[in-house]
Amino acid sequence: AQSVAQPEDQVNVAEGNPLTVKCTYSVSGNPYLFWYVQYPNRGLQFLLKYITGDNLVKGSYGFEAEFNKSQTSFHLKKPSALVSDSALYFCAVRLRIKAAGNKLTFGGGTRVLVKP
Amino acid sequence: KAGVTQTPRYLIKTRGQQVTLSCSPISGHRSVSWYQQTPGQGLQFLFEYFSETQRNKGNFPGRFSGRQFSNSRSEMNVSTLELGDSALYLCASSLGTGGASGANVLTFGAGSRLTVL
Questions:
Q1: Which one of A7, A66, B48, B58 has the lowest number of neighbouring Cβ atoms within 10 Å?
Q2: Which residues make Cβ contacts (< 8 Å) with residue A93, sequence separation at least 6?
């Protein structure tokens, strides 16, 4: 069975500093990888995905993620955090098989707090 | 274009009752998935429907059921509600499902927050 781990429940960072949210996964094969963000009382918003190719993926709002196959990691990064980036971030995986459909397996989430 | 619409946004039920939640996907999207979000268990997959057929089902008891209509709108039902069913129920839609479409992005609605007393 697949699993996704986000080892940090919360990440605190000062505005303007780099932000990193960690994600590791345990899945057979090479999954699709996703990052979503959730603001209070809202659904999840898509940030970026890894399909294949370049290990550095660029996404929305200045976010990027680095895929590392050997470490089975997909860490989310932003060079300069904004107060408005404060939210709950989720890493997710999806198997590359037809039978998996659109089923996403999510990590437990990491709360990001960016202080002015 | 309009996003994924979920109704109702908030509802309160008592134990033993049943509830039906509705989801209208983005126009043209044929896949609808449902997730349960709780503080303790996080985000868990409930089921996915594509072209009115259930494609996948998560590890939930039979009290949780769903369906999809010909216009791709979906409903989920929870019968004999328990306190532990209190959660945010999220619906997500996508153009396709599985295989080469597996990289399709899910677009989520704002959710229906269910409180069971």
A1: A7
A2: A2, A4, A25, A27, A31, A32, A33, A34, A104, A105
Backbone phi and psi for residue B81, each to the nearest 5 degrees, phi listed first:
-60, 140
Contact B31 A101 (CB under 8 A): yes
Any idea which residue has 């396709």 for tokens?
B96
Cβ neighbours for A43, distance < 8 A, ≥ 6 positions apart: B4, B90, B92, B108, B109, B110, B111
H-type helices in B1-117, by residue range? Answer: none
* CA nearest to A2, candidates A110, A97, A68, A66: A97
- Tell me the chain A residues in contact with residue B56 when contact means C-beta distances shorter than 8 Å: 99-103
Residues B10 and B113 sit within 8 Å (Cβ to Cβ): yes
Condensed to tens digits (0 to 9), the pLDDT of residues A51-76 reads 888 899 999 999 999 999 999 999 99
Per the listing, tokens 């996080």 go with B42
Bridge-based pairing state of the strands B74-78 and B112-116: unpaired
Read off the pLDDT of residues B34-55 as tens digits, 9 standing for 90 and up.
999 999 899 999 999 999 999 9
Count the alpha carbons within 13 Å of A37 in the hemisphere toward its beta carbon.
Answer: 17
User: Which residue of chain A is at minimal alpha-carbon distance from B110?
Assistant: A43
CB of B107 within 8 Å of a chain A CB? The answer is yes
What local confidence, expressed as pLDDT, does residue B49 receive? 96
Say if CB A9 and CB A17 are below 8 A apart. Answer: no
